[in-house]
Amino acid sequence: MSAVSTHILDISTGKPASGVPVTLEFKSQSAGWEKAGSGETDNDGRIKNLLGEKVVLLSGHYRITFDTGIYFIGQEIESFYPQVTVMFTVRDANQHYHVPLLLSPFGYSTYRGS
């Protein structure tokens, strides 16, 4: 199983949000935020491995940025949030971290999934 994964459900339609660009970053003490991986949600709204190849998950602070504006433009739907950024802390790098996003044009919610 991958170390970091995500999925997006568009709760306004009850369907997965496919084609959403997503970026994962790690906060290093020396250089600030550094890209750790990226991807685009598949037809099921998922990215099964958000870490880049050969990137090792470390303990520390991470953030995931979802480019929700591109998704809603593609759906021809007006939205309020052009991006959603979720920050989280990895305490045990041996665990799996799943960060889902429940999305609508004018709101969102997230939680630590399994």
Q: What's the architecture in CATH terms?
A: Sandwich
Radius of gyration: 14 Å
Number of strands: 10
Structural class: mainly beta
The CATH fourth-level homologous superfamily: Transthyretin/hydroxyisourate hydrolase domain
CATH class (first level) name: Mainly Beta
Order of helices and strands: EEEEEEHEEEE
- Please, how many domains? 1
Give the low-confidence spans. none
| Terminus-to-terminus distance | 11 Å
Q: Could you explain how this protein is built, in words?
A:
- The protein is mainly β and 114 residues long.
- It has one domain (4-110): Transthyretin/hydroxyisourate hydrolase domain (Immunoglobulin-like).
- Helix content is 6%, strand content 46%.
- The protein contains one helix and ten strands, in the order ββββββαββββ.
- It has one helix at residues 68-74; strands at 4-10, 15-16, 21-28, 32-40, 46-47, 60-66, 84-90, 97-98, 101-104, 107-110.
- Strands 1, 2, 5, 8, 9 and 10 form a six-stranded mixed beta sheet that branches.
- A hairpin with a 4-residue loop joins strand 1 (4-10) and strand 2 (15-16).
- The longest helix is centred in the middle third of the chain and has 7 residues, at 68-74.
- The chain is globular and about 40 Å long.
- The mean pLDDT is 95.
